[in-house]
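Dear Dr. L.,

I hope this message finds you well. Following up on our conversation about the binding site, I have prepared a predicted three-dimensional model of the protein together with EPU. For your records, I am including the exact sequence and ligand specification that went into the calculation, followed by the structure tokens. Please feel free to forward this to your student if that is useful.
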Amino acid sequence: MDKLIVKGGKKLKGEVTVSGSKNAALPIFVATILAPGINQISNVPFLRDINTTIKVLESLGAKVDGSGHVVKIDTSGINSHEATYELVKTMRASVLVLGPLLARFGRARVSLPGGCAIGARPINLHLKGLQALGAEIVLEHGYVEAKCKRLKGARINFDISTVGGTEHLMMAAATAKGETVLENAAREPEIVDLACYLNRMGAKIEGAGTDTIRIQGVSELSAANYEVMPDRIEAGTFMIAAAITGGDIKIHGMKLEHLDALAFKMQDAGVEITSRDGVVRVKAPKKIKGVNIKTRPYPGFPTDMQAQFMALMCIADGASVISENIFENRFMHVSELLRFGADITVEGNTATVKGVKKLSGAPVMATDLRASASLILAGLAADNTSEISRIYHLDRGYESIEKKLAGLGADIVRVKE
Ligand code: EPU
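The resulting structure of the complex is given below.
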């Protein structure tokens, strides 16, 4: 197992380029199931979750060529309708194959994903939506077994905003008979990216990015090429890296408009953020100020940036109140941040962070993807050396993060444990 050794105290300087978005690429890969033929997807991040998605598609009978930034997925030979527990437990987003398999073949058998480190994460709204589209669904032996003739358009009103649920139903409805309206749909940019790709394949989807998405079902989709949007969470993590180290960096390839909620809060904390010719400059103030955040569905403050923002607040002047409103157990990083000497108390879904003058390097353990990022950030700001173990979580979602940070002047290396 690998670990990271971080020697803190270096102010980050220079330029870095953001990779393609993990959370956009995953559903886009899955959507290729809908269109038999060769789909070429570019700006694909090189990540473990992408490899898992490729394994899922291959297990269904697709041929996948390329393990780097351009991936060709030939879905004409898909001949299985089953995604096994082995694959779904490795990455819960694999469950999204259910809708596309059902839409293309009229049947699917997919393992239920179960919970994960950040919460229970049920898929009841995905299943309820598929049933509204006419799927017959049975849960048996830990698997969802679904069948249908052709799915039929319906009005679906989500009880809560769900990114995966919205993506799943958008894919399933693309080739359903008639119109589907998704109400109270999630509005994340990754949903817009998926809708653009589906439309490129011939789907008729309007309103993605708003809370009402209208889908006129078409009889078939054709394979298409697509370039994945930049990863807003990776970009946000670099923004915090600059702020927490007293640095001054330029970030290429990101879309600042996807990160308004984060940028406003960072500006409240005193960070200078400017954008020119598509390049975003992030310059730390002399002293970070404590500000409060509440995670919300997009365009609110992203839960995927909560852990990293908390790391920043650990060294702020004053206190910060952080409420996590999306996942019920997304404070696993707190106990590890305490090992750096942070002052954080948690009550229910609220953490109160009192800024300390200095964090001190420590051996810590990553518990999930974004928690891992927050520990690296704390390590970059801390005195002395930190050792971050269990970084396999990190490899699920950040492409070569240690190399990119080292390129900005951080003292960080990966070693075998
Ligand atoms: N929920 C339900 N029922 C459902 C679906 C969701 O109760 O049927 C609940 C969830 O338990 C959660 C809330 O609704 O409390 C929101 O979950 P959502 O469905 O929006 O999350 P997701 O689609 O499972 C995606 C990202 C997550 C990100 C969330 C929220 C992907 C592959 N994953 O998850 O990303 O945190 O949206 O923005 O897109 C990450 O990248 O580290 C990550 C966890």
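In brief: The pocket of EPU is lined by residues 23, 26, 93, 119-126, 160, 162-165, 186, 303-304, 326-327, 369-370, 397 (CB under 6 Å).

With kind regards,
A. P.
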